[in-house]
Amino acid sequence: MLKGVTDAGFEFPTTIQAQLIPLILSGKDMLGQAKTGTGKTAAFGLPLLSKVEKGIPFQALVLVPTRELAIQVATDLKELGRFTDLHILPVYGGQNVSTQAQLLAKGPEIIVATPGRVMDMAQRNYLTYRNIKHVILDEVDRMLDIGFRDDIRKILGACPRERQTIFVSATMSSDVESLARSFARDAEKIVASTGSLTVSMVKQFHLPVAPWDKKQLLLHLLTHEEPALTVVFCRTKRTVDNLAEYLVRKGMDCHAIHGDMYQNKRNKVMEQLRSGKLEVLIASDVASRGLDVEGITHVINYDLPEDPDLYVHRIGRTARAGRDGVAWSLVTPEQGALLTQIELLINAEIPKLDYPDFKPGPLPPDVLHSQQQQTKRTENAKQFNRFAAPGSAGFAGPSTSAPAPAPTPGSTSAPTRSSAPAVPTGPDLTRFPGGIVPSQAPLKRMFGKVKTARSMKAAMAQNPTPVVTVATPEAAATPPAEPA
To answer: How many CA atoms lie within 13 Å of 199's alpha carbon, on the beta-carbon side?
Structure first.
């Protein structure tokens, strides 16, 4: 292990590494929180590699939220443990099941996997939980965000109780901590530093822009600033594809990456990014975790994320291992409150950046038409309001207020805006049929009350049904009695 650390170029541990490594080596359950880009992978990876015994399959399970992060963590562990002869296998969705089954049959000691695929392979009996002694959940907050809570519960519930459980994340809310402590034994929490990011190491700016000018402003930034390696984050997969097609048409060397792409294509894009053959990467938030690539100089938030914590992880792609970076955010007028939330989270003001040479384009026809329609609706609402009080602006019916008194002789005062016009005399045939204005509710329209069971019983009690006597032959032969 020491030889692998030396060859990796490590000389001094970071703060989170210095605090976590001794406690993990002692066997304690841990909750580790540290800023992004501070070496959390090595903080749990180095003691894990030194504790795992060779030859016992499926001893350690590292759970991560995304496929890219599974590949990244597995690559880092292989590099650190290159002299240990340990077999480390990434298991994630999008890869052929039979191929992964063949690799699992070799009995790797350490598995780095996404929750969904590791459950699938366990149900197929390609791997077992009975030998697991160490479970590590990396970026656990992101796993809860994308709906892996139930999967985590099932996986941890199936693992042996006598194990070491480690939770590592850049942010750790009370929700995450309560879940972690429910599956850990007397876990000790280590917070390497407060806050979310070393803001001084990332030069952050925001650029106000109209929604229809965002593409042109992004192209202006990429062509005038000429950043070396840029990652542009979008909120939706459709925006990622549309923006990538737009930049390619403009002659930019860029590729897209998001969750709906085939895994082989995603892997090729990441290989080009790591080899430095790619200038611009358009990505969804699936890539905000696991992009540990050297040389990323700029991060552009084409869309501000709804979750301020995601902003932290996005711009953390450029300030890796103590390096500097630049982060630009395109902010529309409707996103002012969201920008304020981000500033409160990072406890710093994001200054405004102006580009005087950038000229906004004209209003698109659909936007112009929408604004005209809105203006027309507003004017119509002012002219006619069926719920307005009589005598007020917008009242549809005749005014009931008294006519304004005639000005006295010698008076020079002009009529005020609130003075009502004279009330027309006689019926107004244009407003009501026959000119008759209804003054009260109509009379009974149902011609009586609705009969109910109770009312029927009451009517029968008041008017009993008369007894009808049926005449018989004997009664017909008997003469009627004479009255007294």
So the answer is: 16
Strands 60-63 and 134-138: parallel
CATH superfamily of 2-191: P-loop containing nucleotide triphosphate hydrolases (3.40.50.300)
Cα separation, 136 vs 43, in Å, equals 11
Tokens of 367: 């936007």
302 vs 280: CA distance, rounded Å: 13
Task: Extract the tokens encoding 422.
Answer: 């004279």
Q: What are phi and psi of 31, to 5 degrees?
A: -125, 105
Give residue 81's identity as a one-letter amino acid code.
G
The answer to whether 2-191 and 199-346 have equal CATH topology is yes
Task: Give the model confidence (pLDDT) of 201-249 as tens digits.
Answer: 788 999 999 888 899 999 988 888 777 788 899 988 889 989 999 998 9
pLDDT (tens digit per residue) in 16-33: 888 889 999 998 898 888
CATH number belonging to domain 199-346: 3.40.50.300
Evaluate the CA torsion angle 356, 358, 363, 366 in order and state its sign: negative
Instruction: Print burial letters for 225-252: b (CB count within 10 Å at least 16), e (below 16).
Output: eebebbbbbbbebebbbebbebbeeeeb
Which residue type does 146 have? I
Q: Residue 417 pLDDT more than 70? A: no
Residues 6+ apart with CB under 8 A from 71: 90, 92, 267, 270, 290
Instruction: Give the pLDDT confidence of 377-412 residue by residue, as tens digits.
Output: 777 766 655 555 555 555 455 444 444 444 444 433
Catalogue the long-range contacts made by 171-180 (C-beta closer than 8 Å, 24 or more residues apart).
171/33, 171/141, 171/196, 171/309, 171/312, 172/31, 172/33, 172/140, 172/141, 173/141, 175/144, 176/140, 176/141, 176/144, 177/31, 179/140, 179/144, 179/149, 179/152, 180/31, 180/137, 180/140
Domain boundary assignment for the chain: 2-191, 199-346
